[in-house]
Give the backbone structure.
Amino acid sequence: MDNDFILVLDLGGPQAVEMARKLRNQRYYTEIMSRGADEELFRRKAPRGILVVGGDGYSEPFPKAALALGVPVLALGGAARRMIETCGAVSEGILLKEQASQITFKPCPLFDQLSESDRYFARVDGFALPEGFVSIATTLEGFSPAYADLERRLYGLQFYAESNDPDGAVILSNFAEKICGCTPIWTAKDFLEEEVRYIRERVGNGSALMAVSGGVDSTTCALLMHRAIGERVTCVFVDTGLLRSGEAEQVRNTFEGELGLKLISVDAGDRMLNRLRGVIEPTEKRQVIYEEYMKILAEVGREHPEAEYFVEGTIYSDLLARGSSDAVYARRFDPGKRLEPIRMLFKDEVRILGELLGLPRALAARQSFPGPGLAVRCMGEVTESKLALLRRADAIFREEIQLAGQDKKLTRYFAILDDTRTVGRRLGVTTREYACVLRAVGEQGLASYTVGKLPYDMLERAAARIIREVPGINRVTYDISPCENTFVEWQ
């Protein structure tokens, strides 16, 4: 993309991903950088402009390196307050908090095509503006939620472009194109053509192994590699024994049959369960599974010395969650021989790319599944008997969701097996069996989701079926914990 892009600087919070995706949806390429970056890194990246977001509730100062680069800067939310204070403004306290007000935009290239609208403000502070800055918008009460140094092209808005917000989309587009001079050229089709060329140049006449799970990310990446180098890529599927009901067979059938890709399948169920014996803590579970998985990939790599490259289906959210550009890879492979073709794509972009590559519709709609699999949905020690209960309960819940047509409203829905045993009754006999928890969410971003408001009669049917058809579970609950306090997964 050369330097025709906007750098999104994350000061903390979920907004960086949301704003970056909004710009990409308008075909402007973006990259995200975490707070703490130095001026030299900014200069190496050489973006056309910098969007600084987040910082609400965080104590980190505004990065002066962003101001020193000499390119346009747009700061949103808490970052706007940090920027103006860094430039010498004096705070006059909070003027508005958690309320809506009408906003009028003054003549400014950032607000071309806009005049006034109603907007929700989480917080608006008053400032005695420093030299060079002027107010560029006012609320109905006469407050200034936006200001700018037009000569230095520094803009601060104490609000965000919210969901389904046409004015916010216009502001971001104006910043990218009219102020920064970016061109809206980012599309999945252009990415596909460019990445195929890059892979062919990088791999040359070599061959590659690629770890696949059957999910959207790794399958799309495998199809991309196959488009680039054909039969010289071999997929490696490790059946950890921690997949949902019927998934291992589905993965093998899809890759070898429907997609016609070369596949090495490794049955590692017993091996993984042996390593997990006695492990209860979630962090330790993840570490054990990761270590064993990487050992298996390294073994496959040693058995295929002709494969010079190792490929992973890492996507952008994986990269951001790690806080590093270094991805995991099989230890036999030198880092210079590692490929992550879709590492700069968000999940929705991966799905679009998959469709271009012929990804089966059923796979394109497949919900996200954690890397450690059912181990993180099985509370306490993971055993084969507990996994069997969880698989059956999960399959019933997913079937009821789909029969009720609720799957189109949700991004993830699954069962969790609690380690608690409760008193119940089965065939007139008192029992002590496991409790099962159902979870359904609609994700809106990297750290934001809504709890699925499922019809009560559907939940009743699912609960009744699970208790009746899965001996070993005698109690079913539905988790409605909000994202402000919990994660989607329990572990």
About this structure: Residues 362 and 393 are 21 Å apart (CA to CA).
